[in-house]
Amino acid sequence: MASVKFEDVSVDFPIYNASGRSLKKRLIQVATGGQLGADPHGRVVVRALEGLTFSLKDGDRVGLLGHNGAGKSTLLRLLSGVYVPSSGSARIHGEIGSLIDISLGIDPEATGRENIYLRGGLLGMSRTQINQRIDEIIDFSELGDFVDMPLRTYSSGMHLRLAFSVSTIVRPEILLMDEWLSVGDEGFRHKAESRMKELVQATNILVIASHSRELVQHTCNRAIWLEHGKVRMDGGAEAVCAAYFS
Predict the structure, then answer these.
(1) Architecture in CATH for domain 3-94+208-245
(2) For 224, how many CA atoms within 13 A lie in the half-sphere containing its CB?
(3) Which of 19, 32, 112, 201 shows the smallest number of beta carbons within 10 Å?
């Protein structure tokens, strides 16, 4: 069983050498959507998330809604373990898979085949596991003999096909996404859509940040609306979408 339980979770980012710079403080506030304050040492602090309390369980498909800077990406990175809470309690049980940056770890000087091992390793796969799936990955990517060419010789579409093919081979218990992935030309896009649907169906918990009402209503059974780092509304996807998009 997978589960997520947040209790009064906040995330602060200290801004060094910013004290007394009123213009810079204002720009930070506008750019981040967060709240400015000061820590006990007098350093300027941006509070990106404040007082988040919610639980996720098996079967939850959660859409994160909110304007740019509302805290959606910060929350995804908190769930993935990139950030830790500044205060509060965050308990996460289950293997986590992130599709936030599918090109992370890709080396342009390495071949496509070598990059499969690099990216697979970052996803937590052992060399043995990659060996067992590498033919499937190469076949899905449609790269053919180009898989043994340096990535710098690839077109942007070929690069994305490789990154997508590796990143979606895993089946995590908790899947994190920043918008729905759709890559390649029309033919590959159809394959990618099918792979994404299989991945979502296989995961216990899905958390996806999106600006698409149709996507959230079609894919999710729950939505969380973030505003300035706080939960503005948490409930059924239809109800939250109706309130947010209106």
Answers:
(1) 3-Layer(aba) Sandwich (3.40)
(2) 24
(3) 201
Amino acid 42: pLDDT:
58
Q: Which of 109, 75, 108 is nearest to 92 (CA)?
A: 75
Q: Which amino acid is at 24?
A: K
Query: Is the predicted pLDDT of residue 22 greater than 80, yes or no?
Result: no
Token pair in block for residue 170? 């895993």
Neighbouring residues of 110: CB distance < 8 A, sequence distance ≥ 6: 118, 150, 151
Residues 205-224 have pLDDT tens digits of: 999 999 999 999 999 999 99
Please state the pTM of the whole predicted model: 0.85
Q: Where are the domains of the chain?
A: 3-94+208-245, 112-203
What's the order of all strands across the beta sheet hosting 35-38?
35-38, 44-57, 3-15, 87-93
Q: Are 60 and 222 in contact (CB under 8 A)?
A: yes
Residue of 228, 200, 223, 202 whose CA lies nearest to 213: 223
Pairwise CA distance, residues 68 & 97, whole Å:
23
Full strand arrangement of the beta sheet holding 205-209: 96-98, 174-178, 205-209, 61-65, 222-227, 230-236
* Confidence check: pLDDT of 121 > 80: yes
